[in-house]
Design goal:
Layout: E1 3-8, H1 12-29, E2 33-39, H2 42-50, E3 56-61, H3 70-76, E4 85-90, H4 96-101, E5 106-109, H5 114-130, E6 135-140, E7 143-148, E8 152-158, E9 161-166, E10 169-174, H6 177-183
Parallel strand pairs: 1-2, 1-3, 3-4, 4-5
Antiparallel strand pairs: 6-7, 8-9, 9-10
Amino acid sequence: MMMNIVLLDNVAAHNAQMRMVIQRICDEERLPCEFKLEATSFEEVIEYAESNPPLTVYFLDIRLEAEKTGIDLCRLLPRENVRDRYIFVSAYPHYALECLNVHAYDLLLKPVDLDALRNCLISVYRDIQADGSEMVDIHIGSRVIRMPVNNIYYIEAQGHNVVAHTSRGNFTWAATISGMKEMLKDYSF
């Protein structure tokens, strides 16, 4: 499975350097990757994310502009694709707790240690491979969330809704438990 990569740093030269290092590590480790975007602004990344791309690994700088951070951007991104991974790159370790609060995959400190980046990329790729299960679409209002079947722990009825308890949190929507049973019958639920 291909790792689609997005880089965000407000300095284009930092993106270019990160791209070169990531590409070299991926080539050495035989990790298939494709760079989808090297952005210097929030808007570019949001536009990319709103186009409903396939699984993406985002490398986000934390300190971008005076009032905005990569963590703020992560909160704004549509989170329909629960398989996306968010890796923060920063010289400021005190952001670690905030990174956890937005479900970051990792926090790499600048200057980025090559072994730490290599370990992160290998781990992300293995995680993506292990998460390569069948997907189901969960329709919540006008949103569609693509959920790997093996991330669903169980589903329960609550009134006129169902609640899916997953590794990424709980999702509630209007459906019947019998409809869910039918949808998931091929997956040993």
